[in-house]
Description:
Elements: H1 19-46, H2 48-55, H3 64-69, E1 78-79, H4 85-114, H5 120-158, E2 169-170, H6 171-188, H7 191-200, H8 206-211, H9 213-227, H10 233-275
Amino acid sequence: xxxxxxxxxxxxxxxxxxxxxxxxxxxxxxxxxxxxxxxxxxxxxxxxxxxxxxxxxxxxxxxxxxxxxxxxxxxxxxxxxxxxxxxxxxxxxxxxxxxxxxxxxxxxxxxxxxxxxxxxxxxxxxxxxxxxxxxxxxxxxxxxxxxxxxxxxxxxxxxxxxxxxxxxxxxxxxxxxxxxxxxxxxxxxxxxxxxxxxxxxxxxxxxxxxxxxxxxxxxxxxxxxxxxxxxxxxxxxxxxxxxxxxxxxxxxxxxxxxxxxxxxxxxxxxxxxxxxx
Length: 277
């Protein structure tokens, strides 16, 4: 199979592939990505005990964040209500874990397919952008697993409208909530990356973000309340605090981009004046 790198360096070389050649290269890339994800998913499926030991850890009252915060011990018993539910949940969790484990290779293959169409400076910017987005997504998933989701589980899992009403939580609802909240926090933690990208295109200014800081704080509190529907103010603050820090960090990033653009403009003007006859 011909490598797409024959397409040149993005500067319009003559060795350009045809449309069908591109499709052939794309097919090969997709096959490698699917194969890598499948192998990682099978490996995760075979490691059932450590996999679900990690997934179900926040349901245990001895989870480290509860001890760190001095929370009262609690007991959460998960049940299964469907004949095939546990097996399907096992497959779902293994698939998600496989995709997560194989994600560096998946991004590499995808970038290797796209990069020949980019100029050298575009490749460098793309590598930094994708790397930052990937790292921030993983940080968001980690923050959710280590802090937000355990507190949510503890509150909602032990909440009772009456002492005579016991909670019987299904393992399906537990896993679905974990996956949903991990995805949400992974996306939320892309705020600095998106802000940097918008600033590069001139669509966002640091002074705008400072001017609407109060509005942003209110919006952050609303988002935190939606993500963690608890009546505990402490939990709400713990969720809102990292999002607010992301917003403040985004202001610094946007300001740095504006400063870099201003310095670049000054250098261009100086060069033009020097080259004038």
